[in-house]
Each structure stands twice: as structure tokens, then as C-alpha cells.
């Protein structure tokens, strides 16, 4: 059950919960995603509310299945964190050309301040570059409302739409009053090859049509978009969007505000009209991360002040920082007292794995997950980490160029969910462009996507709602890709055996996959409960079908 | 009235999020505008964690995050986290720590967060019943009785 009463007339819920509820009330028919903080809870909550949602191997596949559903005249949703959009961007940049037949919302969650991310990229750049309309809610009510507006806009203009979230809006709670349900769409196939097949002959005119559509959408945004002009002081106007709006309201309660709800395509006439009221006075743009609004507004020939980027483009904004932006304070941020950093849990199987890799003095090409914490003291046993799946490719690159005695120490270490996400093609690369020294890949299989809060994936044998699913065999993939040796070992129960396997693999000039399999200790209880429930359900179904067969005399 | 700011802080697993949920639920039920901010993700690996609850009647709460130096109450569940968070406390604000509770009388150490809520409750006019309703809504039934005891230990201790 969800953590809130979906039938209440008024509720205190997070932005993510608000989106999941809005998805239900909009009768979304299909939702897919890949877990990533701060977006993960949306699909879980949506599933608990009775909606259909599935985890895909990665964001690109999630976007493709959701796009297929939208081609089939359904309402579909894909969710991801901002770095996931890099993986899925190949889909987005052409899906805007084709447009959609039903409705499709891309929920992309940015992480200003990098609470749990490897970079601080700003999704607004992707929206502009892919020519994808974008909405930015600033609280839970707007998350609820803007999801609906985004879906309706997608249907009206036949185009995918981005709902750009940020960590604070995803995870803060505020009050939401829900609305009535939208009638469901009726999925249906309609042949339109020129619309849906992007060969140059079809995509060249589609690109021009897309730009014309943006002109139309900008006019709509000026006239009807969810933007607000709040006139107070005649001396200072502030243009803002998203969570920054609330910081601005608190930091400068007297300021007039143009709050932009739809930030691509920007409602330039609205901005010009607002700016015109502050000629000879102060007009400021206040936004988190990149100076995206400011650059676009200035490029349109509108004079405005923007934040001091050497300081304020980094990290989240808050009320104090907004006060400082308004005051023109260019001093460095006060340094907060350092809290206790996160650590691998006591009893975490990753501890056993990295103890061995450290002891053997391996050069560790690592990846994204809880185990990335092994790069920090006191373990300090991971040498590289860039993006999902990179462990294997980077390891092969190192093996190719390093002197033999160093190359022989290189190990690629990757978690189970990350391996499924983007590690499989790395194995194919290893088999295809085999380094002279071979290579050693270790999958740290804790049987769950642990980092984001214990989500299922194709290697767990369970779906998003924990019902049984086909379970991927990592060793079989490695063998097919050309690996010479495949081992599985529980590195917690048999640390000596694990150490011997790694040592032997490092000595050989062969391709070796070691699956170090020991469940996440936080997830263990849940995993056992899910498997038990699935087993009981299967046994009950079997007994029922046997009883039915007996009754019908077919036994 | 102006906005009331309560900051909860501790280490991952000490019940920070739960306590802030109870406080937010309580004031929501009493008709206040309320916003609550928290940090997820890496924080669940035993690191520092904090959650802000801001509420007001007759005016809108804007930012979900309490600005530095503006917390009316700082409720800390782990002594090591006082120094990390004390800059948020306003001058004359109230700091509550586990030292304010006779922890030896706690039947379940995990209920420290509820006992701290009991301590905090003395600073507000909400009734014990109102607090109990919020607590019961956020905890499974098997914890209700133990929570009541822990809450009263904090409130009366």
C-alpha cells in the first residue's frame, strides 16, 4: 500500500507521490523506467496505487517501450534521473521528430547539489537540444497539476514532453488537492510510415515541422501556459522557475515575480512584457545550476541580471543563497560543518569483495552502486568510476595500453543491476577485442538494485511488483560473448575461495567472469519474503489446476 | 503567526525521517500549511541525515528548507550531530538532544525518536491525543503501545 490515502480530498505528500497519483488520475496505461535517485519512488508508488509499471534494463529501453506504447495511442510515462537521459537521449532526439499518437511524458529528475549523482548536469539543455517541450513544477501540487498539463499538452501537440523535476521537489512534502480523473485513451494501431520511420526522406521534413510546432507551442505557452505574473514592487522584478520560486518568495517577499511553469519553448513575449515593466529598474533571473533561463532571455535581446555563476551555478539554491544573489554577494559560500559520510553497511558483502581486491593490489575499474563507496577511505580500493557500465570498457582500455605487469592487475568490478543496465555490451567488447593479457570481470551480485533502495531488475527473477519473472543468467551471457572461464562464488561465506579465484584469473591471459554472489543484507529479508510469496502462489495455482483437471476427468 | 521551523537531525537509521513525518502529519491535520524537506539516497548508508518541517497558519510556507539560523527547534537524535546542525538554530531557539531523556527508561532504544517527540511536544499546545493520532497513523499497530510509553517518557520526564 502507498504511504498515503489516495482517496483523501487533501493530502500531504512528496512530489514523487503527487506524480504517481496524477498518473493514476490521468489514466496512464503504461509506465517504464530505470531506478535513479531522486526519481525512483514514482513508479513504485504508481504500481502500489494499482497502475501498471515496469523496470527496464536501462533508460534507453524504458524510453523505447514507453514510446512504442505512445505510438499505439496509449498514455505512457518513462521515468529516470538526469544521467539516465544521456542513455535515453538517442530515443528522445528522434521521438520529437516523429511525435506520438497518444500521450508521452518523460519524467526526468535532476539532482542539483549532487546528493546522489556523479555529475550536476541540467536537463534543460537536453530539452532545448532535442526540441522537447518542458514543464518545471515547484512543489507537490504543481507536480500533480503539471504532470496532467504535460500529458494533455503531449496529446494536443502530438509530441513527447519532459516534466523536469529536481531533488527538492521530488522529495519534499507539501499539500495536494487532487482533481477528477481523465477518461482513458483507447490503444490502436494506425499505419503512418512517413510519420514513424525516420529515414532521411521522412525525417528532413519532420525536422522542419517540429520547429514550426515549437512556434505554435510558444504561442500557446504565452497565452495559456502555466506561468504566473505576480506584481508587487515596481522596483524589482525576478524571473524564476521550479523550487527557486519558493526560495525567492521567502528571500524577497516584496519582489514582483514572473514564475515560469513551462520553460521550453520559453514564452518570450510574456518575458518581454514583464521585463518592460522594469526598464531602468532591477530585473533578475534566479535559477539553479546552469544560467539557462538567463542565457536564453539575454539571447532574445532582453537585458537582465543573472546570478554570479562562479559560485551559484554549483549546488542547490536555498533562501540564504538567493538573498546573497539579490545582494550581489560574490563571497564564497560559508563552509558547513561536515557531517558523517555514508559508508558500506556493517556486514555488507561489498566489504568482503574489496578486502580481497585491496589485498591483491588490483587496479580496479569500478562502476555505479553502493560499492562505489569502496573508493573512499578507509577502503580506497576503486581507481575509476564514470558512468553506468563503464567498468568493463575502461578495464579493457587499461589492459590494452598499460605495461604487462600493470595490465595483469586490472579488474573490472560492476554490480548486478549496473551489469544488466550497460555492462553486457562491455562483455561483448572483451570477447571481440580481447586484450593480450585477457581480462577479469567481477559482477558483485547482491541480487537487487541496492543503492536506490532495493529495486528489482532482470537478474533478480522478479518484476517491479516482485511477481516472478525470467531470471537472466550472467554466466551464459559471458560464455556467448567469448569468455573462457565463468565462476560463481559467495565471497562472504568463502572469502578464501573468492581470493584464489581472483588470483588465478589474474595470472591467466584469459577472459574470466567471476560472479561474487551474496545478497544485500538490507534487502535479504524482503528477498526471502518475496520469493516465499511467489512460491506459495505458484504452488497454490498448481494445486488448483490439478484439482480442476481431476474434476474434469483429465487426470 | 509566522512560520514555525523544526529541524530533525541524526544518523541514517535513527528515525529522523519518521519523526519529521509525525510532526508534519500532526500540523497538517490541525489545518496548518506545511512543507517538509529531507535528503534521501546516500544518506541511508548510516551517514548524517536531517529533515525540516515548516508550518504556519494564515500564511503560506515558501521554501521547504529552513534557512541557516532560523530553526526554532533543533531536535537531534545522535549527540555527534549537534555540531553539524547547530548553525541552523536561531538565537534563543530550543535544542533537544538524547541527553534530555532518561534513555535507561526506554523499553526499546529504537523508540528514542518518539521519546524526543514527546520532549518536543511540551513546547506546543497540541494535545497528547492529537500527537497520538499522528503517531499511530505513521507506525504499524504493534508499535502503538510502546510508542505511547516512549512519548510520555519524553513528555513527562
Could you characterize what this model shows?
The complex is a heterodimer of chains A (555) and B (157). Chain A has 555 residues and is of the alpha/beta class. Chain A has 21 helices and 19 strands. In chain A, helix 2 (41-48) links the parallel strand 2 and strand 3. The two termini of chain A are 40 Å apart. The mean pLDDT of chain A is 96. Chain B has helices at residues 16-29, 82-85, 112-121, 128-138, 144-156, and strands at residues 4-11, 33-38, 48-56, 71-76, 89-96. In chain B, helix 2 links the parallel strand 4 (71-76) and strand 5. In chain B, helix 1 packs across helix 4 (128-138) and helix 3 (112-121) crosses helix 5 (144-156). The mean pLDDT of chain B is 94.
Please describe the structure with a list of short key phrases separated by commas or semicolons.
heterodimer, A: 555 residues, alpha/beta, 7-stranded mixed beta sheet, 5-stranded mixed beta sheet, B: 157 residues, 5 helices, 5 strands, globular
Strand order of the largest sheet of chain A: 3-2-4-5-7-6-12
- β content of chain A, as a range? 15-25%
**Strands of chain B, count:** 5
pLDDT averaged residue by residue of chain A:
96
Q: Could you tell me which chain pair has the largest interface and how many residues each side has?
A: A-B, 36 and 34 residues
Q: Give the oligomer, counting copies of the same chain as homo and different chains as hetero.
A: heterodimer
The radius of gyration over CA of chain B amounts to 14 Å
User: What would you call the shape of chain B?
Assistant: globular
Percent of residues in helices of chain A: 40-55%
What is the overall pLDDT average of chain B? Answer: 94
Q: What shape does the CA trace of chain A take?
A: globular
The N- to C-terminal Cα distance of chain B equals: 29 Å
Terminal-residue CA separation of chain A: 40 Å
Helix/strand structural class of chain B:
alpha/beta
